[in-house]
Every structure is written in C-alpha cells, then in structure tokens.
Amino acid sequence: MFNQLRAVTAMSLGTLGQRLGASSVIVIGIAGVVAVLVSVLALGVGFRHTLANTGSPDRVIVLRGGSDAELSSNLTRADVDNISDAPGLKHGADGKPVLSPELVTVVNLPKKDTGTDANVTLRGVGLKLLEVRPGIRIVDGRMFRPAVREVIAGAGAARQFRNLTLGSKLHLRNADWTVVGRFTSGGDIHESELLADVDTVASAEQRNGYSSAVALLDSPGDFRKFKDWLTTNPQLKVDVQRETDYYAAQSKQLSKLIDIVGNGVAIIMAIGAMFGALNSMYSAVAARSLEIATLRAIGFSALPVLASVMIEALALSLLGGVLGAALAWLFFNGNSVSTLGAAFAQVVFRLDVSPRLIAAGIVWACTIGALGGLFPALRAVRRPVAEALRTA
Amino acid sequence: MSDNIVSMRDVVKTYRRGKQTVEVLHHLSLDIAQGEFVALMGPSGSGKTTLLNLIGGLDRPTSGEVTVAGSRLDRMGSGALARWRADHVGFVFQFYNLMPMLNAERNVELPLLLTHLGKARRRQNVAAALQLVGIADRAKHKPAELSGGQAQRVAIARAIVADPALLVCDEPTGDLDRKAAGEVLTLLQQLNREHGKTVVLVTHDPRAAEYAQRQLHLDKGQLVEQAAAAA
Ligand SMILES: Nc1ncnc2c1ncn2[C@@H]1O[C@H](COP(=O)(O)OP(=O)(O)OP(=O)(O)O)[C@@H](O)[C@H]1O
Ligand SMILES: [Mg+2]
C-alpha cells in the first residue's frame, strides 16, 4: 500500500509543473483568503492589545449608575465632590485626592488618508491629569492651559487625522481651539484622543457636569473599600469599576464584532477559494483520468489514488496558506489603523499578526484544500475503470 | 473443463444510455483454453472491447457467469477484482497507456509495486522483462522519446512483468505501422508459445488475426467461430 501511495503521489506531484496554471489558482486563491483572514483578525488582536494596555489596577472610573460607557454617563459637580470624600483614594502633596473629573465628547475631524470626517474623542480632564495618568508624556509642544481653548493631541490621533500639528486651529463647537502639544501614553487608547481642560470643554458643550471621575487609589487593594463606600452612599447612584475592567468590557463588543466580520469575510472568500480549488482539482483529476484508470486496471486500489489527489490539494493549499500568512505579516504586522466607529470614536491601534493567527490561517487553508480535493478525489476513484479507459 | 482459463456462460451485457438500455452481448458463451492465442474480430461497435473487459475483470456482466483463472468474476466486488487483476492479467492497450512522466523502467515497475518484492528484485524483474521485449537499451527513456512500436513493447513488458497467466490486448497494433505491428504480434506469439501466456487479442486487421491459433467473430452480440488458422 505504501509503495502504491508513494508511486501515485510522486506521479501526481511530478506533473504539477505541467499544470502550473491550475495549481497556482489554488495557491493564489487560498493565499488571498488567508491574507485577508489573518489581517482582519490581526485587527481584533491589535485592538484588544491597545485596550488591554489601557488602565491600571489602582485607577478607578466612576460612572453614573446604569451607564455602560462614559459617553452616556453623567455626573453632577456634587457627585464628584462626594466621590472625592471616599476612603481609599490617594491624596496628593496638596492634600487633595488624585482625581480627575472628565467630560467625554465626540468631535469630527478629517482623516489624513481619505479626507473624510471621522469621530475623535475630545476628553476634558481635570487639573490633576498628570497625577491620575502618570503615563502621559508631552513629546512635543506643551500642556494645555486651563480656561483657554487649547488641546493636546494623542500621538495616534495626530498620525491619523489632519490639522493636529502644533499651532493648528480646530474649529469645534463654533469656536477655535489651538493644538498646543502632542502626547504619548504608553500605546493605550488615550493616544487616540484629544485632551483639554474639562471646564473649558463643559462650557463649549454647554453642559453643567461631567461624564466620569477617574482617580487613583492608595493601592489596588483599596478598591473594595472605595467601591462599597460609594455604592452604599444614599446620595450617590454610581457604578465603580477598576479602569482595567472598564476598558476590557468596552473592547469586548467591538473586538467581537471585528472577529465576526473577519470570520464572515473569510468564510465568504473561503467558499470562493474552495470552488477554485475544487475546479482546479477536478481538472487536475480529469487531465490524469486515463493515467488513473490505467493504474486501476493494473490493479492499484482506490485508496492510494484518492490519497494522492488529497495530498496534492493539501500541499497546494498549505503553500497558499503559508504565502497568505506571510503576506499579511509582511504588509500589515505593526501597521496603524483606526476603527470604523460610527458612534464609537476612532481608536488608533496597530495590527498584531500573532503566531496563533498564522496557525489559524493555515488551518483554514488546509480545510479549504481538503474540501477542494475530496470531491474530485472521490470522483476519480468512483468512476468505473472500464468507462474511464474508454472515454479518456 | 479445468484447463479452460476463460469460461463464460450465458453472458449478457447491457449499457444504459439515458432512458434506453442497449444490450451489447446477447447470452454469449465462450471457452478459452489455458495457453491459447485467440483473436477476436468484429465490426466497430460490435462489443469486442466490452467482451475483453469482462475477460480481464475490468467490468462485470449484467447477467451470466464469467470464470477466469478459477475465479467467478461476476461475483466479485471492485476491490477484489482489482487485486485479482494484479495477480492474473496483463493489459495491452491501443494507445499504450504509459505514464508520460515515468521512464520505461518505472512504467514497467508499476505492477510490481503491488507485490511484496523488494527493490532489488523489482529491478531484476524489470530488466528481464525489458530484455524479453527487446528494448533494454531504452530503459531510461520517457514515453515521449519512444516510437509507437517501442512504446507498445514497453507496455507489453509492463503487462508481463508480474508474470500473469493471461494477456488481454485491445487493438495493440491499431496505432502502429505494418513493420512495428508485425514485431509486436511476433512478440505476442513468442510470449504465447515460449512462455505459455494465454493471449486474447482484439483486432480489426485480418493479417493480425493470422498470428492467433483461433479466430472469433463477434457479430450482433453473438460469437461466430472461424476456421482455425495454421497453428
Ligand atoms: N459505457 C457505455 N455506455 C453506453 N454504451 C456503451 C458503453 N460502452 C460501450 N457502449 C456501446 O456498446 C457498444 C459496443 O462497444 P465496444 O466498445 O465494446 O465495441 P467495439 O467492438 O470495441 O468497438 P470498436 O471496434 O470501435 O472499438 C457500442 O455501441 C458502444 O457505443
Ligand atoms: Mg473497442
């Protein structure tokens, strides 16, 4: 049996060169599917990665009870004063809690690559911003000043959007704002945002309150104490989360969506590639039908013939899979992109073509190849020998 | 009659063509003795290939008994038939049916891959078979580099390399010129006379049929025996 298999497989692979056209249809089709699949899923991985980088276990975010995101949350000034009294909060040199009342809103800016408008988060932050978020570094220009319409732009946002160079004027809410600085924050989500003084943002928005309060705890272990105090306080109706948990929850929906879209696109392409593989393998088998019939007349059994067709299909699709994954890695690994959020503001993050994704892509390739080879292989061996010899 | 290598009784073969069924062989009976050289003639479409396929175990009858080399082929499944063919029959086709990407040697070796012979033994047997058909000097040539007569001799070497008792040849000279055809027929005659192979030869050419000991004519699904030629 092994002799037979080796002989038949060597024969089929030996003629691959003469069937370059049809064979490359399989390889290229599958490479395309895998490249798309791996890059789209790399979006999901990169996105999760960015959001996982956001947040620190000793930082907490307080939202109005029942709001699951900052955009839909609303806290009054009295609420924030109450929160400032909670136990467990870290206090600064001035004796005040390290807390930033924040107001999150969305503004439209043209994207660099397309020129079309997209949402960017404008985050009004308190004076203790740098204490609350020690990761923030001004890399160019200076910090905004309170009570003036000045913003600093995250490095990610500055890469993706126009008009975010130092000194640029932004026309937001019927007023001009000046970009005075550019900052990084360790690759987290805030690098996709614009930051400004919270009270200036509130007045521009004509709002009299905040979205959230973000604060540092003395230590991560103080979370329970802090949370219990707030949630049992009859004057407050708030939700308290560690910042890490908040961003994990925020990312869940979108990364799920990316995965669904990614897999959906890949499935559709995979079906196309499978038909391509089916077609090529059918013609490969048809081209060899006289040879196959002759071997079977001589007494070769069905199994090695079937196996050789499958091996050929799998070898070609494996090649396609590796090629596609390599393309995705070469062209997309580390590329910056931003999400296509509608209500959700743009988040800039890098594609992360991980080994796991590459493995997944290759599994897909082999599945396509196996299905594409199976039916032609079955047809090759099911055909009665006498008939195949006659019509070949 | 235990010295009959082929024994067919009341064999019917019908083909289905769309809704119609066409009966190609009508209650045909045939005996071929061990060691005979039989020529099978008949007009195109008379069912010669159909009959040969039944003898060679490539196909099964619609009804009737087919016993070849002691096995009831009409009762065997396709897997068992494949193994039976490997043990008992060598096939020679009009268009040689060699594997284009394998050289002569490798083509001849194919049937031996179905045996338990080791590599060295296989090489010996291949060399002997190529020697026997007189084409040892072309062992490394691919089919495209051989003339028709040479290719057919390689095909005959492939048919005999595993030492089957029966050779089944469907118009083996149909694609050859007179000279090459004569050489191939002489080779078949030699295999029959000197090596005891039973040969069933389908041919359109009365001159080719002269090489056989017995001529059968297939007409309208029935066999008509002709006077035996000089043996
Ligand atoms: N698989 C098939 N399906 C339908 N009809 C078939 C099939 N195989 C053969 N036939 C028909 O059976 C008849 C006999 O065919 P066969 O090939 O046995 O004739 P033949 O004597 O070998 O002819 P030729 O001399 O042209 O080779 C023909 O009419 C042919 O069309
Ligand atoms: Mg015929």
Task: Please describe what this structure looks like.
The complex is a heterodimer of chains A (392) and B (231). Chain A has helices at residues 2-14, 20-53, 77-84, 129-132, 155-160, 198-205, 223-231, 243-287, 289-298, 302-332, 355-382, 385-391, and strands spanning 59-64, 99-110, 117-125, 137-141, 150-154, 169-172, 175-184, 194-197, 212-216, 238-242, 336-338, 348-350. Chain A is an alpha+beta fold and 392 residues long. Chain A has two domains: 2-52 and 250-391, no CATH class; 66-236, no CATH class. In chain A, the strands form two sheets. In chain A, strands 1, 2, 3, 4, 5, 6, 7, 8, 9 and 10 form a ten-stranded mixed beta sheet that branches. A two-stranded antiparallel ribbon of chain A has the order 11-12. In chain A, a hairpin with a 2-residue loop joins strand 6 (169-172) and strand 7. Chain A is elongated. The two termini of chain A are 26 Å apart. The mean pLDDT of chain A is 86. With 231 residues, chain B is an alpha/beta fold. Chain B has a single domain, classed as 3-Layer(aba) Sandwich (Rossmann fold). Chain B is 32% helix and 28% strand. Chain B is built from seven helices and ten strands. Chain B has helices spanning 48-55, 78-88, 104-109, 119-132, 148-160, 178-195, 206-209; strands at 4-17, 20-33, 37-41, 63-68, 71-72, 89-92, 166-170, 198-202, 214-219, 222-225. In chain B, the strands form two sheets. In chain B, strands 6-7-8-3-9-10 form a six-stranded mixed beta sheet, with helices on both faces. Chain B has a four-stranded antiparallel beta sheet with strand order 2-1-4-5, with helices on one face. The longest helix of chain B has 18 residues, at 178-195. Chain B is globular. The two termini of chain B are 22 Å apart. The mean pLDDT of chain B is 93. Chain A binds chain B through residues 3-4, 7, 11, 14-15, 290-291, 294-302, 384-386, 389-390, and chain B through 49, 53, 56, 58-59, 78-79, 82-83, 85-87, 91, 93, 97, 99-102, 110-111, 113-114, 158. The structure holds adenosine-5'-triphosphate and magnesium ion.
